[in-house]
Amino acid sequence: MDVRWQETFRNRMRRFEAQTETRPGEAAVSIKVRVSSGCFHREHSPQAYELIDRSLKKVAAPDLVFGFEEHESGPEILAIVSLTAAGLSLAASVINFITAIIKARSEGIKKGDGPSEPLEVIVRRVHDDNEFREETVVRFGQSDAIDEVKIEQKLTGALRKLLMDDSAKITTERTGSRGQKKLSKKPSRRKRKI
Fold first, then answer.
1. Cis-peptide into 46, omega within 30 deg
2. Backbone dihedral angles phi then psi of residue 132, each to the nearest 5 degrees
3. Least CB-packed of 56, 87, 88, 142 within 10 Å?
């Protein structure tokens, strides 16, 4: 894998974490919707990006902290995942937006966009020690059925694997030596639009 690409990715994630003021118990992740080969960009997929732009306007609520990046290989969503002893949570509107991107690609191909290689959704993260990790969530061909519930389940499972070490650390930090839960009030997040 190209080391320069990884450094660019690390820098992008660090900027996002700084802008969003990521707190303990939260993790910044990248959710990439990319083509297996070729391009999935505005220039090559104008019909799809028209639909993506509409969906992006619906998702960009002032209280939702996320980022949207366009790349030649496909769009990337930068998001915050909350880690708790009970599990992890990702905003439902982010999951809806990922599904909308996948559907837009399929609709765009029907309306003449090209190329039509399969899409895959991956989650990526840079851990504290600058280690790069990536998990493949799901892969879709242009004629595959798109099921939002299945996407959410697979995305949650992949995030859980990706963040397993962090989740264990949060559980340990939130429990006392006898396993009793420590109570602490978390200050409310400042609303910030990226």
1. no
2. -95, 130
3. 87
pTM over 0.85: no
Determine, yes or no, domain membership for 190: no
- How many domains, in total, are found in the chain? 1
Go through the chain and tell me how many residues it has: 194
- Type of residue at 137: V
Count of alpha carbons within 13 angstroms of residue 20, beta-carbon side = 25
Residue 39 included in any domain: yes
Distance CA 194, CA 181 (A): 34
**Is 19 inside a domain boundary?**
yes
Amino acid symbol at 110 = K
Residue range of the domain that includes 84: 3-173
Residues 157, 183, 26, 147: is their CA dihedral positive or negative?
positive
30 versus 25: the higher-pLDDT residue is 30
Q: What percent of the chain has pLDDT over 90?
A: 45
The Cα 94–Cα 92 span in angstroms is 5
Mean pLDDT over 75-98 rounds to 88
- Residue 188 placed within a domain: no
Give whole-number Cα distances, 90 to 38, 46, 55, 143, in Å: 29, 28, 18, 27
Token readout for 181 is 């839960």
